[in-house]
Input
Amino acid sequence: MPNIDDIAVLTSENVRLNYSLAGMGSRVVAFLLDSIIVVLTMGGVTVIFLAIDPATVNFAEIESTAQSFLGMIFIILIFLIIWGYYFFFEWLNWGQTPGKSALGIRVASADGAPAGVTACAIRNIVRVIDLMLAGVGVTFFVMIFTPRYQRLGDLAAGTVVVKRRQLSFDTVLNAARSADQAAFYAQQEAAARAQTMYRPGSNITETNLKIRIDDSERVLIEKFIERRHMLPVDVRRKLARDLAARIRSRLPGDALGHLDDEPFLETALATNPRL
Amino acid sequence: MAGELTSFLEEREDRYRRLEYLLYMAEKDGLRKFNKDDLVEFGHLYRIAAADLARARFVLRSPILAEYLNELVGRAHHMIHRKSSNIVKSFAWFVAYDFPMTFRKEINPILLAISLLVGAALVGGISYQFDHKWGQLMLADPNLRQYEADLQSGPAHLASGDISQDAMAAASGFIITNNIQACIGASAGGILFGLGTFFALSSNGFLLGVIGSMFLSKSFAHQLYFWAGILPHGVLELPAICIAGGAGFLFARGLLIPGKISRGEALRLEGVNAVKLIGGVILLLIIAGLIEGFITPIPSAYMPHWLKLLFAACLFTGLVLYLWRSGSREEDKEPVERAQRSTTHLRLE
Output
């Protein structure tokens, strides 16, 4: 499946930035990971305080002021872990708790920017209610029925959870190099096929045959070819005609005009391999 | 056989890698650590990458390069356009001006919360007067039953206090965290169309009413004890729960009465003020918890009841003055000027 760009933002340089929303699965897994970390941290803190003095954890045994202050620190630490874990990580770590980081997702405001302190506070205050409702499954329905998979906390804070995927430069370069090869072979093949379909005397050669299609057109053609056998004949013809007309309009004159719409689309796809 | 894209990438490699490195440094330590040359270079590389992103999409038509640059440019964009503010200064601004200003702005939902709490307290008090058992039944909390039992045995017993001197700090920590959790719950419950807030306020008010009512029929000494034991921290805790309730009703207002904007947008806008109120509530509860842990339990031999009541009166007056007046001069200023003061944008030119 191609990436569906769910959020588009225009920067001041007039360049569009796209962000894909995180799926519910990765969000739930990230939450479970975070929960494990929270519980383990709380357990660790408790063990440390028990080792110092059991009375700091069990208030009924407190006998001295020192124990009492340690107890105060203990209870405030536990409180901060429970309530501060998500808030501080999301606020100060570019929208990522360790769990979200592991799953490659982050919290963002509606324009894709890292969520601010207010937004992080709201979504994590309302988390109590979301967790309560998740117990009876309501949270999942809320997420399904909101257009951006938002839970109540996200709705109140105006935040979304998006994928954060920074490809490495090497990945891009390698893909480009292997695409060069693939394109070379595909072009040879397509040219060989196209040549057999040319009218005699046509002056169109392999070099000016390059049909440019963009990403969305590629997806459309792929979907069309995948499903065309299921379509009623007239719908199939009309779709092929519309799609081909859009691409043909960019070709010089009547080039490839002799090709039927569907072979034309297939040729277009073959000369533009996916990267 | 290097294609168009490959040669383009080879040409750009150094710049992209440099931008990646600068971004890594900026995300780790912030742009403050950059010197002037780094900043200029960062801005320059950012603009190149942004232009290349458009190029990758519409000229090179390479989704993978577009995806790579999309994330890179996005990160740089957020880095450049991020509001940078001094946390200490923003916090001081919030405490001194923003919280009381928000309180005055959103006084209506807070008044609603206050009336709900008072109403529930009246119901609780009256129902206890009618039938003590019924009141007791509502006091499901075993601590409160113990409280009532203690009460029957007289003020002398009570005066010893239930928090020993040694345990004051721990008790204070417990009270603070417990109250904050209760108030956050009451506010967050507003997202359920106000039902959660309604329930939290009315149940708390009811309990208060029952307890108050228990003391109403007792002797003057009893009543003095009661008020001295509840008011020093109560004058902060009760306003805090009301403000938290007001924050909850803000959420509810956004959901139920969005006005001319969409429900989601209304909820988000109300949420900003709601979280400011909750921030203030947390501060009030920290102070109240410290008082409840360290001052309220002081035996009357060291701090007589009248002194505690005087303390409570001063504290309440201070709170009222703070919420009523603080930041009122700032309110008269132009909103633009205020915005400029509270945040500064970092410019890269």
Remarks:
- Chain A has eleven helices and four strands.
- Chain A touches chain B through 71 residues (CB under 8 Å).
